[in-house]
Specification:
about 15% strand; 2-enoyl-CoA Hydratase, Chain A, domain 1; 6-stranded parallel beta sheet; alpha/beta; about 625 residues; 8-stranded mixed beta sheet; globular
Amino acid sequence: MAAGSRNGFLGFLGAIWRGINFVRQALLNIIFFGLLLLLIGVAMKTSHPSAELKSGTILVLHPEGRLVEQYSINPTQRAIAALAGEPSRQVQLRDLLSSIDAAAHDPHIKAILLDPGDLQTGALTFAALRQVGHALDQFRKTGKQVIAWSPSYTQSQYYLAVHANRVLMDPQGSAMFTGLSSYQLYFKDLLDKLGVKVHLIRVGKFKSYAEPFILNGPSPAAQEENQSWMGDVWTQWLDSVAKARKLDPAKLSADIVQLPQQVAAANGDLAKMLLNEHLLDGLLTRSQLIAQLQKLGVTDQRGHGFRAIGFRSYLATVKRAQRLHSSQESEVAIIVAEGEIVSGPQKPGTIGGMATARLIRKAREDRRVKAIVLRVNSPGGSVFPAELIRREVQLTRSAGKPVVVSMGNVAASGGYWISMDANQIVAEPNTITGSIGIFGLFFNVPNMLAKIGVHSGGLGTTPWAGAMDQTRPMNPKFSAAIQLVINKGYRNFVGGVAKARHKSFAQIDAIAQGHVWTGRQALKLGLVDQLGGINTAIRLAATDAKLGKKYRVVYRSEPLSRIQRFIVGFSKNAMVGFAGAYGIRLPSWMADLAPRISNDLLLLQQARPGQVNAFAYCFCGQ
């Protein structure tokens, strides 16, 4: 075949192939968009399903994952996880509180079944758990019952469960209450062996966050501080549990100290031990629990369970009713500041200084917003982004709109920095706060490089050019200059707190020094104004703004995109629940998308080479 004929034939085959490929792609697109339109149509029809509640319904509180102020997993990932039938890895505190509060006044809700077994909690969630416990107490005051049951209990899960009328557990379950601890790894010897030189420049006797890089164990000051706040939090745990279970706190504490003997006396049967110590009201299997709940409420249509509704489904029903009755009333805006405080744009769960400042500014400029509650749950972070937020709080207050800070589990160091200029500060008794101090942290690695035959050489136009180059030793005179910068930052912090709290510099300096306090201790020291949860802060903000009782509460956050709103809405609709009931779910690997980032690493990533990096951060036993 001639070259021209061969090329023509090949061109003809290529044209046929391109035509086939075009038809294939067109068919795939038609199928894809057809399915998409079908899903959209179903979603639109079922986006507002009529979830009719019937009398005798039991509200099931089975929170899964970490208890957070706001989701750090983005909406698309949460929606995909819901479509995949995966357990939620986070639950918002506000959602639990809202569902409990609504249920208290709902005639259809007979009781609450609380199962905290999949709630991931720890010592630094006691303040949030205390708020949920208070909501359960208010629910019980209406005459309705709360039944707590779990296969097993952790120390913090049990702290929540004691707010129930009855605390039950599976006969094969377990719970061991051992107290609080704060242990961490120390790296001085390792860094010395590697040839890494650490320069810690700090102000504050108790500012111990970076001690693991310069010591092989905690300093006496760190031990003293940890004993202070952990001792107070543990005392509050003992008092709360003892009061709820009608026990003597001293005896409860003594029994915990005698834990090995208690276990031996029960022959290793932890459930029996807890029952004997009156820490449980009964031992029931799941089927026995269902039988009791059927007597308390109503047997379901199939006769195998009880009439129930999950708190997420119930909350969606409540929110739809609220939207139907919404009005143009004045607003109290809640802005959540949760996580480390860092520079630049950040995802929820981390406080971006500019983003949070922008939310406060928008709320200040919105005529509907009459007051702001800044909900702080943060161990701090970089100083400059914290200062951006503080300035907006100050400007909002100067503009005549009150700002009330509601402290969550932790509002320490930078978390206190952004709080100090509020009209009022509200904290839970077991909130971790204070830690007023700052530090700078620098690493130099010339010795480490020398160990592998790498050396740094060159010149600078001044003695200080390249002074912060990590490959070179730090000049002692330059280090002394940085110490002066950190000293000034500390004076600014203490001076700012003194001005805001109407105290002298010396008075605040005496309780600063990087010392961590509980909310109860902070109230006595004058660092907070009142003890309470977010509802207390909302009432104070409304009172300061002279709103009376005619106002609505709105959480302000960065808006979702249209596609995010669609995916989130679709994942919650009735069709998804129907499909899930028949085992139709997305592959589980699609739900496992959220990366886990170390908090410490995230903080150290904010240290920019060639700049003085000041941090107002509290390790706070995390």
